[in-house]
Every structure is written in structure tokens, then in C-alpha cells.
UniProtKB/TrEMBL annotation, chain A:
Source organism: Paractinoplanes aksuensis
Protein name per its UniProtKB record: Amino acid ABC transporter ATP-binding protein
Keywords: Amino-acid transport, ATP-binding, Cell membrane, Membrane, Nucleotide-binding, Transport
Pfam families per the UniProt record, alphabetical: ABC_tran (PF00005)
Domain ABC transporter residues, every copy: 3-237
Family: Belongs to the ABC transporter superfamily.
Main location: membrane
Membrane topology term: Peripheral membrane protein
Subcellular location: Cell membrane
CDD domains to which the protein is assigned, alphabetical: ABC_HisP_GlnQ (cd03262)
GO molecular function, one term: ATP binding
Domain of life from the UniProt record: Bacteria
From TrEMBL, chain B:
Domain ABC transmembrane type-1, first and last residues per copy: 75-267
Localisation: Cell membrane
Protein's recorded name: Amino acid ABC transporter permease
Primary localisation category: membrane
Keyword presence, Transmembrane: yes
């Protein structure tokens, strides 16, 4: 198992967001997290990346308990990439500097080498001509691809993607989806939170439905999205179909 | 179609002509109204019954020429003080602002002291700080007490450091928490996130008010004359006493304005650029 969450509990005051959640992710596996708004998808990803502290349970990365307070969170985060819904690029840095910041400052790689690697990636995603631009001058789809590249240049063991397409116009979604599908082909282990059931169906090996702070139902996309067992999953999907997002 | 082939349409040409005419008319109007206001002011001042006496005791060209070199010499001290105090106050302000952001129980005393400092020194008038530092500290008769000039400078640095710390803090707080989350998620430590992500954005945002405070500082540097060092104002005071004429003060005043002009111009330019950047982002 690359990632294994066991009985994870997370509360905000009296509000219990994750209530004994258990989820495993194997090597090269792509897991899609679905669930209503507020069901805790983002919270789970933030907990895995140690941006939020869990209140109970254990999260393991490659078997190591990363929720042990003696573990250095910075070294854990270096192995986990997280891409945010709102990109969160650094507006005062060029695209290239955004991408090379962590390789140079955290991983202490020579600047020239980090640049070459960044340019290679930008070439791959068709953004080489934007290397010197500032994020404000890029379209949403371009910014999101840069954000994904920024996470990838650290060669993470695990990539967490939080609704990476939800802020994008439909035409721009395609660019990002293509990129994620390619990553899957290369064997990247990924957990992605999404409201796009079509996206989940296309790229995920497994879909996990979050409800009341737990994984209520999980399995292959065709089963969970096509023939769900749990009534609450069915309700959720029915609402989504009504909204025209399936 | 290549750009060189583009010819503005008749409608666009009409617009261009109209705008050009409007611009010419605006310039003429501005010139005319300036001339009228200027003439009125001139008549009002020079026509005043006491104008001759005022001119003699404030605008005597002979005294101005005589005292200019000495006041300039004093200004050299102001200039050195300005550069040193501005840099030191900026550094102190930044340090205090960063200390105030530290979280965790270990840093409680640091945080509390930094907060106490910004609260008290923003309330304390600069003149009192200068008196306390320049006359109080030598009174202790400690070994190696620095000169009054240094102590006066330190008073300015301490007072302005408190203001600048608050400006920096406002800047730091205006950086959205998601920026820190993004930096941390890449594996950057708290210090690295501050240094490479938060502070550069914070400083850019508060550059206009920081520079504005520096302009205020350049004026207040003159207050050290109260403690004794012979700066431009002190020299002008001596001149006034010797000549029984206020012209040296006017000379010092004009020099201070000239000294401030470049700084003010830079401030305006930075403010304008910041506003443009912000508008471009939306
Ligand atoms: N920092 C916080 N303080 C208090 N409550 C929070 C905080 N972060 C999240 N929550 C709450 O936790 C719950 C889960 O939020 P979360 O963002 O994980 O949901 P989500 O499944 O990602 O929703 P969406 O699909 O809308 O992104 C919500 O009810 C939210 O209000
Ligand atoms: Mg979310």
C-alpha cells in the first residue's frame, strides 16, 4: 500500500468531518473521491498532506506512520504532491520560478538542472512559451497545468488532486484531463477529489463515495457509478444526474 | 491580414480626431486657469500691507547666500541620518512583524514583547523618545555611551520601527493562507515559505505606505537638532540668532523639500505601478 488511512477522525470544533474513515491506495492505483459538497474530500487530502492535523486514527505512507508527532512533516510533504482547486500559484514568480522553487530550495538541486527539468515538463504540456510569464497572464487551464507540473517535479510518491477541473471552463477541462490520463499511463499513484463523474469514470481504477465522514461505498467506477449498492450513493448520483453532471 | 495592412475605419478616425481636439482644449484650459490663479495669489501676497517687512525678514537673498553653505553642511548630517535611520527602521520593522507572526507557546514571550513594543512606541511622541534617549542614557554615565547623534538616530529608528512593523504586518496578513498552504505542500519549511512566498508578496503590496513613511521619516530626522547635533535646522537656528532674520529657516525648509522630492517621486511611481498591477490582475 502506498497510502493507508485507518479510522481517521477530524473535527472542527464540534463539527465531525471525518468519522473513522478508512481508505487504502495501492501502487499505481488511481482513486477518485466523490461525495456531496462538505463531505470532507478536501479535508481528507489536507490531512494526508499534513496541512491539517487529524484527531484520531493513523495515516501511513509506504507503511510509515506519518501522523506520528515525531515525524518531520516537511519531509513527508516532500514525498506527497498536492494540487489545489484554485491552483495557488505564486503570483510574484514566473511560471519557471514557481516550478523550480521546491527542487532548488528543498531538494537542493542545481538551478540549471532544475530549469532543464522544468522546461522539459513545460514542453510536454505545451506551455514552454509561457515559462517567463506570470500566473496572472495565464488562462485557468494553463495555470492548473503549471500547478500540476509544480507538484510533479518533486517526483512525489503520491499525487493528491483536489477538484483540479472545477474552476475551469468546459473547453479547458480537456487539457487537464489529458495530462492526468498520461500520468496514469506512467504509473503515478493518485487520489483525486472530483464532482465530475465522467472524469472519475475515465481515469479512476476505483471510486470511493464519502458520506457522513466515512467511505460508504467503493469499487470499480462501473459498479459504484453504474450500479451502486447503498441507497445514499444512489441518491447522491440521482442528484448529480439531475444537475446534468454525469 | 497582417497588422501593417490595417487602416482605421472612418468611425475610428473620427474618434481619434475628436480625442485629439479634446486633449488640446484641456491643455489650454488648464494653462489659462493656472495663470489666473497664479496672478491672483501673487497680487494678494505682494499687495498685502506687511509684504515688504515679511520679504526683508524671510526672503533676504544676501543672508540666504551667506548661510547656504553652512546649512548645506548641516544637511549632509541629515542625509546620512536619513539613509541610516530609514534602512535600520525598515529592518527593525520587518523583524518585529515577522516575530509577531510566530505561533506556538515557545514564542509567547517574543510575541508579547514585540506587541508591547509596537503598541507603546506608536503612541509615544518622537520628541519625547529623543529627549529620553539623548539626555537620559548619557545620564547613566555608562562606559562607552555613544554620541548624542547616534542616540538621537536610535530614537528615530525605534519610533519608526514600530510604525513600519505594523505596515509590514498588514502586508503579511494580506497574503492569503492558501499561499502558505501551497508552499508547505511543496515541502518548504515555515521559514522558507515566509522568505520565498509570503514576504516578497507582502513587501510588494505595502511598498507605497512604506515609502510614504520614509518620506515622513526624512522630515522628522530634523528633530534630532533638539538634542544638540548641528544639522541643517540647528545651523539655520544659529543663523537666525546671529542675523536676527528668518531667512536661514526658509533656506533650510527649501533644502528639505528638495531632499524629499526624489523620494516622493519614487513613492508616487511605485504607488502608480502597484495600482496598475492590481488592476491588471482582475
Ligand atoms: N478550517 C476549517 N474550519 C472549520 N470548518 C472547516 C474547515 N475546513 C473545512 N471545514 C468544514 O469541513 C467540512 C468539509 O469540508 P471540505 O472542504 O473537506 O468538503 P469537500 O468535500 O471538499 O467539499 P467541496 O466538494 O465543496 O469541496 C465542511 O462542512 C466545512 O465547512
Ligand atoms: Mg473541496
Amino acid at each position: 500500500m502506498v497510502l493507508s488511512c485507518t479510522d481517521v477522525r477530524k473535527t472542527f470544533g464540534s463539527h465531525v468531518v471525518l468519522d473513522g474513515l478508512t481508505l487504502d491506495v495501492g501502487e499505481h492505483e488511481v482513486v477518485a473521491l466523490i461525495g456531496a459538497s462538505g463531505s470532507g474530500k478536501s479535508t481528507l487530502l489536507r490531512c494526508v498532506n499534513l496541512l491539517a492535523e487529524i484527531d484520531d486514527g493513523v495515516i501511513r505512507l509506504d507503511g510509515e506512520d506519518i501522523t506520528d508527532p515525531r515525524v518531520d512533516p516537511d519531509s513527508v510533504r516532500q514525498k506527497i504532491g498536492l494540487v489545489f482547486q484554485s491552483y495557488n500559484l505564486f503570483p510574484h514568480m514566473t511560471v519557471l520560478d514557481n516550478i523550480t522553487l521546491a527542487p532548488v530550495r528543498v531538494h537542493k538541486r542545481p538551478a540549471a538542472e532544475a530549469r532543464d527539468q522544468a522546461m522539459e515538463w513545460l514542453n510536454r504540456v505545451g506551455l514552454a512559451d509561457k515559462a517567463g510569464s506570470y500566473p496572472d497572464n495565464l488562462s485557468g487551464g494553463q495555470q492548473q497545468r503549471v500547478a500540476i507540473v509544480r507538484a510533479l517535479v518533486n517526483s512525489p510518491r503520491l499525487l493528491l488532486l483536489d477538484e483540479v477541473t472545477s474552476a475551469l471552463d468546459p473547453e479547458l477541462v480537456g487539457e487537464v484531463l489529458t495530462m492526468i490520463r498520461e500520468l496514469k499511463g506512467e504509473g503515478m499513484t493518485m487520489v483525486l477529489a472530483t464532482h465530475e463523474m465522467g472524469f472519475a469514470r475515465q481515469v479512476a481504477d476505483r471510486v470511493a463515495f464519502l458520506d457522513k465522514g466515512r467511505v460508504l461505498e467503493q469499487g470499480p467506477p462501473s459498479q459504484v457509478l453504474g450500479d451502486p449498492v447503498e441507497p445514499r450513493t444512489r441518491q447522491f448520483l440521482a442528484r448529480i444526474i439531475e444537475a446534468g453532471r454525469l | 491580414m497582417s497588422p501593417s495592412q490595417y487602416e482605421p475605419s472612418a468611425i475610428q478616425q473620427g474618434r481619434i480626431t475628436f480625442r485629439r481636439r479634446k486633449a488640446v482644449r484641456s491643455v489650454l484650459l488648464a494653462a489659462l486657469s493656472t495663470a489666473i490663479v497664479g496672478t491672483l495669489l501673487g497680487v494678494l501676497v505682494t499687495g498685502a500691507p506687511g509684504w515688504d517687512r515679511v520679504r526683508q525678514s524671510f526672503f533676504d537673498p544676501r543672508i540666504a547666500r551667506e548661510w547656504l553653505p553652512e546649512i548645506l553642511e548641516g544637511l549632509w548630517l541629515n542625509l546620512r541620518m536619513l539613509v541610516f535611520c530609514a534602512l535600520a527602521a525598515l529592518a527593525l520593522g520587518l523583524l518585529i512583524a515577522v516575530l509577531r507572526t510566530l505561533r506556538g507557546p515557545v514564542f509567547f514571550p517574543v510575541r508579547a514583547l514585540a506587541t508591547l513594543y509596537t503598541y507603546s512606541f506608536r503612541g509615544l511622541p518622537l520628541i519625547i523618545v529623543i529627549y529620553l534617549m539623548a539626555f537620559g542614557i548619557p545620564g547613566l554615565r555608562l562606559e562607552g555611551t555613544p554620541s548624542v547623534t547616534v542616540l538621537g538616530g536610535a530614537a528615530i529608528v525605534i519610533t519608526y520601527g514600530a510604525y513600519l512593523a505594523e505596515v509590514f504586518r498588514a502586508g503579511i496578513e494580506s497574503v492569503h493562507p492558501s499561499q502558505i498552504a501551497a508552499a508547505r505542500s511543496l515541502g518548504l519549511s515555515y521559514r522558507q515559505s515566509m522568505r520565498f512566498v509570503v514576504l516578497p508578496q507582502a513587501v510588494r503590496r505595502v511598498a507605497p505606505p512604506l515609502l510614504n513613511d520614509t518620506v515622513a521619516l526624512q522630515k522628522d530626522v530634523g528633530l534630532i537638532s533638539l538634542a544638540g547635533p548641528i544639522d541643517a535646522i540647528r545651523m539655520a537656528q544659529i543663523g537666525v540668532a546671529q542675523t536676527a532674520n528668518f531667512t536661514p529657516y526658509v533656506v533650510a525648509g527649501v533644502l528639505f523639500v528638495l531632499l524629499a522630492l526624489p523620494l516622493i517621486a519614487v513613492t508616487d511611481w511605485v504607488t502608480l505601478r502597484a495600482a496598475r498591477r492590481q488592476n491588471a490582475g482582475t
